[in-house]
# Entry
Amino acid sequence: MKKKAEYWNKLSENRVQCTLCSHKCILKSGQKGLCTIRGNLDGILYNLQYGESVSISSDPIEKKPLFHFYPGSMITSIAPNGCNLDCPFCQNYEISQGSVATKYISPKKAGEISKIYNSIGLSYTYTEPLVWFEYLIDAGEEVHKQNGLNVLISNGMINPEPLNNLLPLIDAVNIDLKTFSEDKYRKILKGDLKSVLNTIETFAANNIHIEVTTLIVTDFNDSEKEIINIAKFLSSINKEIPFHLSRYFPHYKYQKPPTDPKILIEFYNIAKSYLPHSFIGNFQNIEMESSFCPACNSLWISRQGYNVEIVGIENNKCKTCSKEINFPL
Ligand code: SF4
# Structure
C-alpha cells in the first residue's frame, strides 16, 4: 500500500526532495530514498510501505527496552522494512536493510490490535518507524481513539518540523543514541548526531516519557570518553532519564567480538554516577537490570530478563524514604 508523502518539495524534471530527515534525498522519478520507504513516482513523493508491517507480535514492554513505563506490561509491536541509517553492526539488518514479506495493517486495524492480549498500546519498533511518518500519524490517531498508548523505538533521525507534528500522538519513546561523535554518525552510520540530540531534547521538553539506549560496540564507541559525554548530556536534560547500555554481538557487516562484559560493567558504573536509572541489556545481571531509589538506594523494581516485580514502591512513593515516583506504573 502506498500513500502520498508529507514533507517534500517538487524540483525540476520530475525530481523531488524529501525533507523528512536530515538526508534531504533528491530523487529522480523511480528512485527510492536511503530509507527505501519513501520514493518518487512520476514526480510525487510517496510512502511506499504505508501500513506494511514485517510482523505483529506481543512483547513485554521491557523488551523495547522501556523500564519505567508501565513496568511488567505487554505491548503489541509492528515494524516496516527500512531505515534511514546504515549501521554496519545493525542487530536487525534483515528487515532494516533488506526487504522481507509484509502484511498490510490498516490504521483502524492498528487501533484494534493495540488492545489485544492485554496490550497497553502499539509500539512502532525493530526498524525505523520515523520514516513511516504518514502511517504513524494515521495509526497513532486510531490507537488513541481506542485509549491505547503509542510507543516509538527509534534512531531519532527526523527534522524538527515533522517531529513537532508527531509529538501529540506519542506517549513514550526509546531513542538509540549510537555515539557522541558527529564524525562517526556521518561517516560510519550515514546519520546526523545533531538531529538525534534535538529529538531527545524535544521529547524531554514536551514531557513525553523518554528512555535512551546505547549499544556498546567493540572498537566503535567503547571508550570511557564516549560514555561520559553521553551520560553528561542526558543528565543535563534530566538526571532521571533511564539509560540502557546494551551488549553488542557480531551482526551484518561488523564482525568484531561481542562487548567485553568487564567494559559493560565498568561503563554501567560510570553511567550510574550521572544517571541513577542506568541499566545493562543483552547481559544477565539482576542488580544491573533492576531499578533503585535515587535517594535512598532501596530496591524499587526487581528484574531478571522479563520477570518483573515491583517491590519497593507503594502509592507512587518509595516505600523506604517516600520519594515520589515520576513514571507511570
Ligand atoms: S526520510 Fe528517507 S527519503 Fe526522506 S530524506 Fe530521509 S532517507 Fe531520504
In short: The chain has two domains: 3-47, 52-289. Residues 18, 20-21, 23-25, 33-35, 38, 84, 131 surround iron/sulfur cluster (CB under 6 Å). The mean pLDDT is 96. The CA atoms of residues 51 and 106 lie 6 Å apart.
